[in-house]
Design a protein that fits this description.
75 residues; mainly alpha; elongated
């Protein structure tokens, strides 16, 4: 399944609509978003963020080391 980005939808569909229809669409989208929907733009990292970052970093390092060892053994 191909995913369409918001920019593609805007350029291909929304931009071609008349201004009144674009305004109606924007209003419908904004009204559909719950007032409780909050986007966290905080620059601070939580403990969970740090744990996830550390875990993924270690996985990446171990994967890279494994690939280097495989290349050295076969090369």
């Amino acid at each position: 399944m191909v995913q369409t980005t918001a920019e593609e939808v805007y350029n291909q569909v929304v931009k071609t609509m008349c201004v009144s229809e674009r305004f109606k669409l924007a209003t419908m989208i904004l009204n559909d978003i719950s007032p409780r929907a909050v986007v966290d733009y905080s620059e601070e990292w939580t403990e969970e963020d740090m744990r996830e970052f550390t875990a993924y970093s270690w996985r990446y390092v171990l994967q890279q080391l494994g690939e280097e060892e495989d290349n050295a053994a076969s090369g």
